[in-house]
Amino acid sequence: IVGALIEGYATTFTNAGEISATATAGDASGDNSYVDVGVVYGVSVNGVSNFTNSGTISASAQAGDASGDNSDVEVDGIYGAYFVFDVGTFNNTGDITATATAGNAEGDNSTVDVGDIYGVDFEGNVSKFNNSKNSTISASAQAGDASGEDSYAEAYDVYGVYFGDYVGSFSNSGTITASAQAGDASGDNSTVDVEGVAGVLAINGVS
User: What per-residue confidence (pLDDT) applies to 205?
Assistant: First the structure.
């Protein structure tokens, strides 16, 4: 599910309006029931020389509840803006958000799993990054409860901005946030886990 998709290379991308992508799944009931939502992109671009956003770009996903033994609720792969290859200049004076919410899983061996949520994900090089004052880039994940023996609730890999490769310059005078929350796990050997949460993660640092 994509709000805006550019499969080739773009010289200039400008958004002064609103781009959004939303996915919603209902409930599943019964043993071995399963609810799964993903992948959702607000904007997906292969590569771009100049990217400017002064509007709103958002990606959101919501999954309902799964009830029954071995039930599973998953929301994964939600990206406000996703860049496959190199980006020359990235300038944000607006808002870019990614939000994921999962319901509850009820029953023995039940699982609630929310992960891979990115406000902005750069997989290639970025020459210049700027997030201006009064601008926001955010990623949030919320997993519900898992109830029953060996039940599991997890929220993981939530990043406001992720740089997978080289970053030339980085400037932020706005707001970049990442938040993750997992509910309760009840029953023998039940587990709640939250890990891999960062406002900004640059794999190779910033030069």
Answer: 83
Quickly state the pLDDT bin for 148 (edges 50, 70, 90). Answer: confident
Sign of the torsion angle spanned by Cα atoms 73, 79, 84, 85: negative
Q: Are 132 and 169 in contact (CB under 8 A)?
A: no
DSSP state of 38: -
Rounded Cα–Cα distance for residues 158 and 101 (Å): 12
100: exposed, middle or buried (C-beta count within 10 Å: 0-12, 13-18, 19+)?
A: buried
CA-based nearest residue to 120, from 135, 95, 137, 141? 137
pLDDT of 136 > 80? The answer is yes
Residue 59 and residue 39 in contact, taking contact as beta carbons nearer than 8 Å: no
Q: What Cα–Cα distance (Å) separates residue 142 from each residue in 45, 126, 177? A: 27, 29, 14
pLDDT at 44 over 90: yes
Q: How far is CA 97 from CA 51, 125, 188, in A?
A: 16, 21, 37
Distance CA 164, CA 83 (A): 10
* % helix, strand, coil for the chain, step of 5: 0, 70, 30
Higher pLDDT, 95 or 190: 95
Query: Under DSSP, is residue 123 helix (H, G, I), strand (E, B) or coil?
Result: coil
CB 47 within 8 Å of CB 10: yes
Classify residue 30 as left (phi > 0), alpha (psi -120 to 50) or beta: left
